[in-house]
Design a protein that fits this description.
Elements (H helix, E strand, L loop, with lengths): L6 H17 L5 H7 L6 H13 L3 E2 L8 E2 L1 H11 L7 H14 L3 H16 L2 E5 L8 E8 L4 E8 L4 E7 L5 H15 L4 H12 L2 H5 L1 H14 L8 E4 L1 H5 L7 H12 L1 H10 L7 E4 L11 E10 L2 E11 L4 H18 L4
Antiparallel strand pairs: 1-2, 3-7, 3-10, 4-5, 5-6, 8-9, 9-10
Helix pairs in contact: 1-4, 2-3, 5-6, 6-14, 7-10, 8-10
Length: about 350
């Protein structure tokens, strides 16, 4: 829907949202006039507020209360009124110091990024780790557990480790070591995805037809890689910040949010939507696919490896979030992670 607001109307809506973000309480005309717009009388502010309520940008929780911005009011504010601030230099330096200390292990680096997002935003953070298959293959190991089970240990060049069990015929540990050595010597420095494609091609090669060890190594390698495309890991930090917000005073609402955080599959699907287009996205209330978070919002962005989107991160909290601060924070963190992942 298109709204045609005067500059005065925009200023009043902006003041209401600024005050609501700060206090979490319905905003009255007298507060707007005295605190933000001294040249405009409370009566004039009240008339504008009534007009904004009529078109759906504000609502009044009860007759004697002030107004609260609707999700549509926040959407208009984000697109037409808000000025995004640059992330303060002090916060940039703090992020750089913390991320430098975590370098060396990709999972630890990403966990640190998730913690920092929560700490600086004072809301919950969500970060989806890249799938292992997007990283360069370093080595694979096979460990015989019993006559039917083999433990597969996949390690990427970036230090990410993926363990799972495959089932098959009984194979001695000595043979498993030989299979692993062949795969490690042949496929090092390919991505897991490229390695899988190469195994498929080599299975039909002359070498595989006449060399039993090669054939068995390739077969086991293909079996080992089948599970790598599973659901990505996800970090959620700072849930307590959300649970302690005034919006959680309602027990039913609290239960909805707890259930939403437990539904990681739905969170992953929502966050994956931000990978479709570059940049920071804001999802408000119903944008989050009936996750039970109508009074909450998500500020999210994808991050890349060599310009290819591999994961996403975001900050989730009450809809009265300070977007002018959180949006540049999420964008900066996404850029930092993209730079760090460039060579892994």
């Amino acid at each position: 829907m298109t709204y045609h607001l005067s500059e005065r109307d925009k200023s009043i809506l902006g003041a209401i949202i600024q005050e609501y973000v700060s206090t979490g309480e319905p905003v009255g005309s007298r507060i707007v006039s005295r605190k933000y717009m001294l040249a405009i009388s409370p009566a004039t502010v009240r008339n504008v507020m009534a007009d904004l309520e009529e078109i759906g940008l504000l609502y009044q929780p009860h007759i004697s209360a002030g107004r609260i911005p609707t999700p549509e009011g926040f959407r208009y504010y984000l697109s037409e009124i808000m000025e995004t601030k640059a992330l303060p230099r002090g916060e940039k330096n703090m992020i750089s110091r913390h991320m430098a200390r975590a370098m060396g292990d990709v999972k630890e680096t990403l966990r640190e990024a998730s913690c920092l997002l929560s700490q600086i935003s004072r809301n919950a953070s969500i970060l989806i780790l890249p799938k292992l298959e997007t990283f360069l293959f370093k080595r694979i190991d096979f460990v015989r557990l019993d006559e039917a089970r083999i433990l597969v240990i996949l390690v990427s060049r970036a230090g990410m480790v993926y363990n799972h069990i495959v089932y098959g015929e009984d194979v001695s540990q000595d043979l498993l070591v030989k299979y692993a050595n062949y795969l490690n010597e042949t496929y090092a420095d390919l991505t897991i995805h490229e390695m899988r494609d190469a195994l498929v091609r080599e299975m039909s090669s002359e070498k595989a037809k006449f060399d039993s060890l090669v054939k068995q190594a390739i077969s086991l390698g293909m079996t080992a890689l089948k599970k790598v495309e599973g659901a990505p890991d996800i970090y959620i930090q700072g849930k307590q910040s959300v649970f302690n917000s005034p919006e959680m005073a309602n027990l039913e609402r609290f239960r909805d949010i707890v259930n939403a955080f437990e539904d990681k599959g739905q969170i992953v699907r929502i966050l994956n939507r931000v990978l479709e287009n570059p940049g920071v996205k804001v999802l408000l209330g119903e944008d989050m696919e009936h996750l039970g978070m109508d009074d909450f919002s998500l500020v999210a962005s994808g991050y890349c490896r060599n310009d290819v989107p591999v994961g996403s991160l975001g900050v989730i909290g009450p809809i009265r979030m300070d977007y002018s601060r959180v949006i540049p924070l999420v964008g900066y963190m996404a850029n930092i992670l993209s730079d760090l992942l460039e060579d892994v």
